[in-house]
Amino acid sequence: MNPPIARIRALRSVELRVPTVTDSTDFYENVWGLKVVERDGAQAWLRGTGMQHHVLQLSDAPQNGLGRISFAVATPAEVDEAARRLESRGIGPIAGPGPLEQVGGGYGLRFADPEGRVVEISADTYAVTKIETGDAVPVGVTHVVLNTVDIDAAVAFYTDVLGMRVSDWSEHQMAFLRCNADHHSIAFNQAEWTAVNHIAYQMPTVDHFMRGIGRLRHHGITPLWGPGKHGPGDNTFSYFADPAGLVCEYTSGIAQVDEDAWLCRVWRRVPELSDLWGTAGPPSKQVRSHMAGVPDPGPARPAAVGAAVSS
Ligand SMILES: [Fe+2]
């Protein structure tokens, strides 16, 4: 059996394709609490208070979709080795390995997952310093949840090829995968079509989390669902819709996994386990609709789509 292509260290950033770049950028900067580090007419790059150069890239597109997910590896040599290992699995690169000609720099590699999502791994991105603030603003992106038409195939790819571990299942509906001590950095939700389900932003504490919700309320924006606390991951949640209708989440307190001791569990989808505090109630039709999103054909990349996974 082939080893994973690399040791993924962290989720760095997400690129979202939206038809509302200007409005979405204004929302994420002036309401959500990110900071624009660079922008042009069709794109914007935003950071949190943490160590990533940017955590969100917004790109102009006719409809909502995922641009790419970017993960960190430790060194450029690991990127090169990952490219060789992908090749041996019959998966060609979309770009790289090599210097990433992009905002934030880095040495990386891009390839497609089985549903045509663009995955990037990178090392040596530009440094930024932490922003020290008591404000209720996100540190960065902490997890991405993706709707998949084949949850078993998605989990197989991200565990087998990318070396992630399944932390928990929510019945056979959701799978939570980790690449470091955080309970999940990515999760898959079985659905009728491929789409972004939601992007979660880490608040440092429950106090920041609640004050963030309060700031949105002052902007006239109330949660689609939450505040509450999930069973799987033990994290707080509050979900909102951005100007494109994509779901963004404030969260805090994600469970930390002891790699040697953790045992994967299957959570039954009952209210007392998906809403530990009993404050959120069941998800509304409205939040479910936003999370279902629109079918995402992905960015144009005909050469890469359909690349086979071998194990
Ligand atoms: Fe989440």
TrEMBL record:
<dbReference type="InterPro" id="IPR037523">
    <property type="entry name" value="VOC_core"/>
</dbReference>
<feature type="region of interest" description="Disordered">
    <location>
        <begin position="280"/>
        <end position="311"/>
    </location>
</feature>
<feature type="compositionally biased region" description="Low complexity">
    <location>
        <begin position="301"/>
        <end position="311"/>
    </location>
</feature>
<dbReference type="GO" id="GO:0051213">
    <property type="term" value="F:dioxygenase activity"/>
</dbReference>
<feature type="domain" description="VOC">
    <location>
        <begin position="140"/>
        <end position="253"/>
    </location>
</feature>
<feature type="domain" description="VOC">
    <location>
        <begin position="10"/>
        <end position="124"/>
    </location>
</feature>
<keyword id="KW-0223">Dioxygenase</keyword>
<dbReference type="InterPro" id="IPR029068">
    <property type="entry name" value="Glyas_Bleomycin-R_OHBP_Dase"/>
</dbReference>
<keyword id="KW-0560">Oxidoreductase</keyword>
<dbReference type="InterPro" id="IPR004360">
    <property type="entry name" value="Glyas_Fos-R_dOase_dom"/>
</dbReference>
<dbReference type="InterPro" id="IPR050383">
    <property type="entry name" value="GlyoxalaseI/FosfomycinResist"/>
</dbReference>
<protein>
    <submittedName>
        <fullName>Extradiol ring-cleavage dioxygenase</fullName>
    </submittedName>
</protein>
<dbReference type="Pfam" id="PF00903">
    <property type="entry name" value="Glyoxalase"/>
</dbReference>
